[in-house]
Structures are given as structure tokens and as C-alpha cells.
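Field notebook, page 82. I keep forgetting to write these up properly, so this time I am using the form the group agreed on. The chain and the ligand, zinc ion, are recorded exactly as supplied. Prediction of the bound pose follows.
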Amino acid sequence: MRASGRHISDHDLDRYYLGMIREERELAVLEEHLLACSDCVARAQQTEDLVDELRVALSSIDDLQCEPAFRKAPRLRAVGSA
Ligand SMILES: [Zn+2]
């Protein structure tokens, strides 16, 4: 059996780690390639680090946007009932 010779694209690695690849067949192809190809595993690990950084960055943005909203709601209610 011959490998297709095509490496996984950065885009597909991103999608893989972001959980955006839902098709079992596509997942199986990627995972099979990662098992056989150390080049792509190395790139996958870099992608994983990047995705983790993105998640941290995104979650801190979420916190900034959500916190004032959460604080505003009870304050408004308190003002209304006072
Ligand atoms: Zn590869």
C-alpha cells in the first residue's frame, strides 16, 4: 500500500485541533497520516500550541466582554428596586 504522498495542510491541522472536522472519513485520513508521518506530527504539535494560545487569548477576550455585562445586570435591578 502506498501513501498518497500528500501532507496535511496547515489549514486542515488547524481545523483538526479546533474540532471543526466532523466527517469520520476525513478524521480517519488525517489520523492515519499523523500516525505515519513524523513531519506532520511535528507541525501538528506547533499547531496545537498555537491553537492553545488562541484559546487562551479568546477566553480572556470573552472574560473582558462578559464581566461588565454580568456586573451591570444586578446593579440595574438594584437601582430599579431602590
Ligand atoms: Zn505528512
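OBSERVATIONS:
- Residues 10-81 form one domain.
- The longest helix spans residues 38-81.
FOLLOW-UP: compare against the apo run.
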